[in-house]
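Exam revision sheet. Question 4 asks you to relate a sequence to its structure. Input first:
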Amino acid sequence: MLIAQITDLHVGAAGFLAYGRYDTSNTLSRCIAHLLRQRPAPELVLATGDLVDAGSEEEYRRLKELLLPLPMPLYLIPGNHDDRDALRSAFADHAYLGPVGEPARYCIEGYPLRLIGLDTTVRGETGGALDDGQIDWLEGQLAASPRDPALVFMHHPPFRTGIARMDSIGLDAASAERLGDVLSRNDNVQLVTCGHVHRAIQVRWHGTVASVCPSTAFQYGLNLEDSRLEPSPHEPPAYQLHCWNGSELVTHTVAVDPGA
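Answer key, structure tokens:
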């Protein structure tokens, strides 16, 4: 089973350039075109938040147009730049996103790997959290099928990356602790994959692997010294491929030349 992950798309309205220089719609289109040339083709795509830049209806209309070339199932989860209900409205055919006003949480069955999406967004905040309802629901999902391997995906990483600015706006400590406790009691989670940081990062965490997928828009430069956070002009847009071989989940990071 081959799963593609795209994240931190930051699609804007017509003419939008992130940081005045990154054409995020163009880089997304290039990543999608590159992804569609993969052989074998991914069976599905996970899009893990910051799908648009400001959460507007216009942006979501543009996003939907840009994602149309994808012929395989697409599963969305919001990030802190998103408006979850505007997302639901634009993608009304994605019924798994759930009812208006509630955090999106869902479990996709029928694949060799169960796919569990969690919504870490907090309205008006840059950092993330998981409420008790989501964490209890997650534990119930994992406990109900303890022998079935699962992949959990969300926007905010639950672990400290060493990048001070992003760690200050990651998943809050209480949510991370509770999530870690759930994972420690359930050994069927093969991966917790996230976005938000605009870099590829991996860590062994509470008995599983937790990771961050790089952005299709731009990467932030690696800074482990202080709180400065600046885009890196030398690192290209990227996505990840997660390959489940029946016993192991292997992740490949795929860089896409923005001029290709």
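Marking note for examiners. Residues 108 and 175 are 23 Å apart (CA to CA).
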